[in-house]
Amino acid sequence: AAPAASSGPVKLVYWGAFAANLGKVQEEVVKQFNDSQKAVTVEHQFQGSYEELANKLTAALQAKQAPDMAVLSDVWWYKFYLNKAIQPMDDLMKAEKVDTKDYVDSLFNEYVQAGKSYALPFARSTPLFYYNKDAYKKAGLPDRAPKTWDEFVKDFAPKLKGAIDPKQFVFANGGYSAWIFQGVIWQFGGAYSDKDFKMTIGEPKGVQAGEFYRDSIKAGWSQSVKNDTDEFKQMNAVNIINSTGSLVGILDAAKGKFEVGTGFLPEGPAGFGCPTGGAGVAILSGLAKEKQAASMQYIAFATSPKVQASWSQQTGYMPVRKTAIDSKEMQDFVKTNPNFKTALDQLPKTKFQDSARVFVPNGDQILAKGLERILVNQEAPSTVFKEVAETLTKEAEPVIKARKALGA
């Protein structure tokens, strides 16, 4: 008998990591793609946080039950690149006629290894300084974020304390605390590591940044909490540093209660420092040719200028395409919604994160546990960061070996 012709659309499984409002918007992107053509059907499966998704993906790869595509965060994609679990996308992008030059260069280049692209940016962010405008007004402060930490500590915090009950500032001690501290350590002239995995967090400038964190709790202008966005939404905290991806959730929660302001991160003794963050979408290795092409079709759609402009407006994430940022629709939107402009204006000043956090498996958690010891237990940063550096050095060894083997 003649071989059966393949019938129906190519079916793909896509693992996501966005909950609440972000999850709804992600579902909508998938639905729009499925409705836009008949050749490919994408099934979106929510897997929990970035970390939960990465852990499930590790298990799924071992069981040979991996999805076709997955959202991978700034600290997880590299592990799957080293394990050869995700495939280069260059030929697929060419076949799909993806205009790679239209992606924001710094965001696109983060996924390039040895001249090949292993993911495309999708939900990309920077940390922002969020403040409660009503509280600032009551305290007689200007309607802007503090320009420097010095200004915040000496001028803003005392006025806020005198005028209102809630905490002036909260630092998150869970979740993505090492992402926020990445900016702070740069602001003090330090770094987690150099690009070749020499751990520098325990050096004097790094320790100084750690002491700034510890002193903020001692001085009483900040507190350490598990979930800083909740504290801010409930008006228990006047200021937080959090992702631009939290913007819409925060604005929705504040509606009718208080006005939200956003600004660049404050400068430290060494000037400005701010990382990028968020996630890209990768294609898993070993797929049949038609599934590879179909996956690329979906990713090209999800990262297209039109979808990126609307995704950004509904979430707060930055558009990853230059033409999306420059589009009339986006420019008109940020004119009437200035909080969405902050991350776009801050983006050119951002830097790629230190290798210790983004390339060392569990580097993010090792750093976060160290920060928790300083914020919660009030341990000496010099002791904590020395131990953190030793742990990171050990954890980096297999990465350095794997990189050499891959010619990275």
Label this structure with key terms.
48% helix, D-Maltodextrin-Binding Protein, domain 2, 15% strand, alpha/beta, 2 domains, five-stranded mixed sheet, globular, 408 residues, disordered N terminus, 12 strands
Radius of gyration: 22 Å
Q: What is the first-to-last residue Cα distance? A: 49 Å
Describe the biggest sheet? 5 strands, mixed
Give the count of structural domains.
2
Quaternary status: single chain
The strand order across the widest sheet is: 2-1-3-12-6
- Assign the CATH architecture of the largest domain: 3-Layer(aba) Sandwich
Average pLDDT number: 96
Q: Which stretches are poorly predicted, pLDDT < 50 over at least 5 residues? A: 1-5
CATH class of the largest domain: Alpha Beta
Overall geometric form = globular
Number of strands: 12
Q: Per DSSP, what share of the residues sits in E-state strands of 2 or more residues? A: 15-25%
Helix amount, in percent? 40-55%
What is the CATH H-level superfamily of the largest domain?
A: Periplasmic binding protein-like II
Q: Provide the structure class.
A: alpha/beta
Number of helices: 19
